[in-house]
Amino acid sequence: MKRLLSLLLCLVLLCGLAACGKQPEDDPTAPTETTDETTEPVSADKAARRMITLPYTAADALNPFQTKSTMNRDIDTLLYDSLVRLDENFAPVPSLAADVTQNGLTITVTLREDVRFTSGELLHPRDVVYSFQCAKESPCFEARLQTFFSCSQEGETAVVFTLLEENARAASCLDFPVVRFGTGDRELPVGCGRYRPVRRSGDLYLKANEESSAMEEMELQTIKLLDISTRENELQLLQIGELSAFYVDGAAPTQKIFANEQAVPLLNFVYLGLNSGREHLSDPAFRRALAFAIDKPTICAAAYDAHASAADLPFHPLWEESPEETVGYDPLAAPRAFDLLGYTLSSSAKRAKGGQSVKLELVCNSENPMRLSCAKLIADQLRDCGFTVNLSVLDYDSYLIRLESGLWDLYVGEVKLTADMDLSLFFGAEGKAGYGLDPASAAAQTFFSWRAGAVDTSTFAQVFLQDQPLVPLCFRSGRLYCAKELQIEGDVNENDLYANLYAWSYIES
Predict the structure, then answer these.
(1) Angle (deg, nearest 10), helices 442-451 and 457-467
(2) pTM for this prediction
(3) Taking the CB of residue 375, how many other CB atoms lie within 10 A of it?
(4) Does 199 share its domain with 279?
(5) Tell me, what CATH number does 328's domain have?
């Protein structure tokens, strides 16, 4: 009897241990570890002040497929890695991918075999397929993945993407976050980024990912996240030392900032839209002359407080393929070009053709002060050329209604391009920025050949400048403000704002 009782007791103990044990490593629904109460305490007040502290908002998700704010999206890049990352020239650089090859409508990605999630499991093709599906359904990534149709597993180390239409630079859009299979709907999916989230005494920290192959290079092991959802002046938090860095995308702060500043190149493309269906503007030669009359450097300096890069083509000047073909501001060439086209100056210094004065209407959205300032400068520059320009400043809804009506000549617009420099926003059949553009124009036809890889970028640039379907103005830049005593290595870019965070450090005084 005693022997039987002993056996029963052993079975009970074994069952209890099994119930308390760790879930299997291959269980895709295993919970993410988000607490770490045993991490080393920061005892000295000075040490606490020297810790790198970054902003986030608890009012928004840190799930990369649900994040809405730019602030949290920047933190997401530290938690979740992608197949490729974009460098400072917007070129794709393999990250989780060991190799990327494209053949027509097919992109094959071979995965690195040394990548582990923070939960310890190796990266598997099914994780990428699952993450792609999550990204396709997310408003955060749908624009860059719009030409992608599907993703499927190929063997044990590769995935194959199929495109809806030919896009020779589609690999640049493979920077969507990769999470562990089945965790995409969690508050914090399981990632394989440079850091993992931990909680200590109710605060959120980032701790260097022990499973990362780059762990040895991670000089910065712990980062504090400061919730600023209820704080009013973020830049003041930077100046009093509560934050180490803060990113601003938009108008420059009105108060003086005692901090280091780094420009962050953006793919926010600002342009002057031209209505090719209107008199005068239907002539490519008139559109080219108009481009000569626009002083883009002045627009960058005055309207965008020097936080913009002038552009003569719809490609960012830093882009690795950006050609040298340009048509810059020329205060002498513009009047001569208009004269040759028969737009002569009258006795009242107004341009006229066939005895009829030329009047142009420029419409602009009143709710964006930078674009409004830009529109006012353009109106003045065209008036200097002798044109009568009526500037119509409209609220956003009225602005859209006017553009859709076609009853306008010029408008100032801004779109966010994807890293493959896809201009289908302008030239596509359903392009959201195609107002006034002729879908049968030389530029539109050549664009699709260029996107498919049938013509090179320089050839498309030449056709674009000859046709001049719109006038590129500039690409905006954001600003990363950092504490004065913070040492930052390398360049920063919008797709990976904290690319070199692991090497950040405070300068010891």
Answers:
(1) 170
(2) 0.88
(3) 26
(4) no
(5) 3.10.105.10
The torsion region of residue 34 among left (phi > 0), alpha (psi -120 to 50) and beta comes to: alpha
Order of all β-strands in the sheet with 106-111 = 97-103, 106-111, 158-163, 148-154
Is residue 190 within 8 Å of residue 79, measured between CB atoms?
no
User: Residues 468, 495: one domain?
Assistant: no
Structure tokens at 249: 């995308």
CB 114, CB 185: distance < 8 Å: no
Per-residue tens of pLDDT for the chain, all 509 residues: 444 444 443 443 334 434 443 333 333 333 334 444 334 444 444 444 478 999 999 999 999 999 999 999 999 999 999 999 999 899 999 999 999 999 999 999 999 999 999 999 999 999 999 999 999 999 999 999 999 999 999 999 999 999 999 999 999 999 999 999 999 999 999 999 999 999 988 899 999 998 876 666 667 889 999 999 888 777 888 888 899 999 988 766 656 677 788 899 999 999 999 999 999 999 999 999 999 999 999 999 999 999 999 999 999 999 999 987 777 788 888 999 999 999 999 888 899 998 889 999 999 999 999 999 999 999 999 999 999 999 999 999 999 999 999 999 999 999 999 999 999 999 998 889 999 999 999 999 999 999 999 999 999 999 999 999 999 999 999 999 988 888 777 777 888 899 888 778 787 65
User: Are 395 and 491 within one domain?
Assistant: no
Asked, for residue 23, whether it belongs to a domain, the answer is no
Provide the 10 A C-beta neighbour count for residue 230. Answer: 8
The domain in which residue 335 lies consists of: 264-478
Number of structural domains (the chain) is 2
471 and 487 housed in the same domain: no
Q: Which of 315, 268, 254 is nearest to 464 (CA)?
A: 315
User: Which residue's entry shows tokens 């719809």?
Assistant: 314
